[in-house]
Amino acid sequence: MILFSDIHTNIKSDLTMTRLILTLLTTLLFISACNPEADTVQSPFDGPNPWPDIRAERIQTLLPVAMQRADVDTWAIICRSNNNDPLARHVGCENAVAPAVFMFRLIDDEVFSIVFTPPGEAVALQEIGLQDSIIVVGRSPGALVEAADYINRNLDGNLALNFSENNEIADGLSHTQFNRFSDMLTQQVRNRTVSSEDLVYEWLSVKLPAEVDILRKAAELTAQWEVEAYRQVIPNESTDKDIADFLKAKMREYGVTDAWAPAQNPAVNSGPDRGHAHPTDRVIRPGDVIQIDFGIKVYDMWVTDIQRFAYVLHPGETEPPADIQRYWEVARDGNRKALEAMAPGVTGFEVDSVQREWMRENGSMEVMWNTGHPVGYVAHDVGPSLGGAQEGRDPRPEAFRELRPGNVFAFDGFYMWEIEGGTKTISVEEMAVVTEDGAEYLTAPQEELILISSD
């Protein structure tokens, strides 16, 4: 027999338990809402930005060598707001408002840095402590006048300014700034004024071991995401743009940004060659060879540039057709030959020539692109050019520059053939760093075509 009092007790117990469960759920939802990081990924690039420390080390260790090689006694960078010099972040004047002059003098084997700055930015510069000497000047006559006076009195050798025909990163001085500052210099100093092109080349082309480690982590993530993107493809349904959207979502998830123009990063192409172009709504179909050319920027400073390739199997296929497989293997092996050719003292032209000979031996059409380019602070960075051996194209001066330890490259193995509507190029692009006795990949290279099933 069930007594009414027992029923009442059971009902009260059930209500108590229900309220307890609801309270726990409400608490968990509140905690989750107050802690949005609980649902976010742990990026390897979270935490303090290492750039300030790395920048200081680069100025202390690499800049003296660069100035010696470029035969420069003094380097002056004019900084300002809104349209600042491309090298502002490298020398510490990224926050300039009123015009300021950041100067580096080579004294014996060390660099001594001086800043001529208006009072508005002086406190911040003093707190950062990157420069050896900060000279606070009034807005009239201003930093340029004071810096020019110092140079006129103290210059012993060549003065480098940021103007260049061949290196846009060393070309930050506007025509107006150049004329104005030059007018403040004596004729003797003007006669010894040179482009900073060689200095900037020598300085930026070499990356510190700490920078290579950062690029290595970024390269691993870049390649991993490209493989993940291919896993999302549904033949006859997915588009090139769908792949790009997936990679954009990964970038947002991890808090990294684009290595080059956002509209063209990533470049995804399942059809005929399009060069540097934006992804389209072309539907991916069986028989397509798909290219992803993708790069990320980490810590708002260092960038990657890596390509991955896939083949879409026809229903019933388990491997690519023999010709596609051969094109892939030739391109892949061309990339490996280029890596084997890299070593200190070798020129970029020599590296490019090795791969060109391999392509021609194996029947590839002529490819206009260089085998490779420096990468690091921008996708096409400062350093030796792995190119110049193309038919009908004059080599750039950088193609005859020798490779040095610490040079980082993005470089391809090529095979081009004709398809309906144009040509198709497999360009196996990897990243590598030059070492003391050769070169090594920054991440595991792609060994086989990624296969996408249509079954």
Provide structural commentary:
Residues 1-38 have low confidence and may be disordered. The protein is α+β, with helices and mostly antiparallel strands and 455 residues long. 38% of the residues lie in helices and 19% in strands. The protein folds into 2 domains: 51-204, Creatine Amidinohydrolase, Chain A, domain 1 (3-Layer(aba) Sandwich); 209-452, Alpha-Beta Complex (Creatine Amidinohydrolase).
What would the keywords be for this entry?
single chain, 455 residues, alpha+beta, Creatine Amidinohydrolase, Chain A, domain 1, Creatine Amidinohydrolase, six-stranded mixed sheet, four-stranded mixed sheet, 19% strand, elongated, disordered N terminus
How would you summarize what this structure contains?
It is built from twelve helices and 19 strands. The protein is α+β, with helices and mostly antiparallel strands and 455 residues long. Helix 2 packs across helix 8.
